[in-house]
Design goal:
Length: about 250
């Protein structure tokens, strides 16, 4: 068996659920070590427990800089280095340009965009000290195009897309051996989209509406995104940096 993540330590923000949890599972399945970092302690500890000795839970609020510093320090103290970061913590909220409050705009952008900035900022020094690494930032198809009903979310995910390119180019220029790419999922069957699935859209259920957005005619599964993330965290993608990897059942095609 080829262990694609052997010798690699990966910190996963949002690791308690959905795409982050499946990525943590795949990292360990492939011979690596995964740190499940999340503000949801009960779910995060349960995922880390599945991973055995190669898993660790750390409490993380991605909007708080000291929380990132502590999470990275715990990771390197426990596992001896940092070679991968997945920024998957995120929140999705329906709002539009007329009704979105300043507080709501700030909350969504704090988690999705500022949280990704802080993750990259504090991972880079630890990865440098570990000989290099790979950062993967989860954006969205809504970081590539707009949607009338997801204003703050689109703004936050567009920021993740270009932040990623900045980190990639800076690290390449500095010869840090650190790559950074963004992943852009379509609608994925995780707790995040439960409210949208339960809504009604004209004469369609929310589920039917979302499924029809994808030419493949279904929602994505978190493991399908985790497979793409794993490729980017592994040494199979060593010539990819600053790029956008779309995983959307054809939605943006
Ligand atoms: P999810 O709700 O299953 O998981 C999100 C995780 O982020 C949760 O465990 C939650 O506790 C954590 N989180 C939220 N705020 C946090 C904070 N301040 N600090 C630490 N952790 C926090 O959702 P998911 O679908 O797995 O989402 C993962 C990423 O994928 C998100 O960035 C999301 O925006 C993105 N995404 C999801 C979809 C989709 O359809 N599900 C589509 C495109 C992009």
């Amino acid at each position: 068996m080829v262990e694609r993540m052997k010798g690699k330590v990966v910190l996963v923000s949002g690791g308690a659920s959905g795409i982050g949890a499946d990525t943590a599972r795949f990292v360990v399945r492939e011979g690596g070590k995964a740190v499940v970092a999340d503000r949801d302690e009960a779910k995060g500890r349960a995922v880390a427990a599945e991973l055995g000795a190669n898993g660790l839970f750390v409490t993380l609020d991605v909007t708080q800089e000291p929380s990132w510093q502590k999470a990275v320090a715990e990771t390197t103290a426990q596992f001896g280095g940092l070679h991968g970061l997945l920024n998957a913590a995120g929140v999705g909220v329906r709002n539009d340009i007329e009704t979105c409050t300043l507080a709501e705009f700030r909350r969504v952008n704090d988690v999705n965009s500022l949280g990704t900035f802080l993750g990259c900022k504090h991972a880079v020094p630890a990865m440098k000290a570990s000989g290099g690494g790979s950062i993967v930032n989860i954006s969205s198809v809504l970081g590539l195009r707009g949607a009338a009903y997801a204003m703050a979310y689109c703004a936050s995910k567009g920021a993740v897309r270009t932040l990623t390119k900045n980190v990639a180019l800076y690290c390449a220029f500095m010869k840090y051996n650190i790559r950074c790419n963004s992943v852009h999922p379509g609608y994925i069957d995780t707790p995040m989209i439960v409210p949208a699935l339960q809504a009604t859209m004209g004469n369609m259920t929310g589920k039917q509406f979302l499924e029809e957005l994808h030419p493949l005619g279904r929602l994505g599964q978190p493991k399908e995104v985790a497979d793409m993330v794993l490729f980017l965290l592994s040494d199979e993608s060593t010539f990819s940096t600053g790029s956008e990897f779309v995983c959307d059942g054809g939605l943006t095609a």
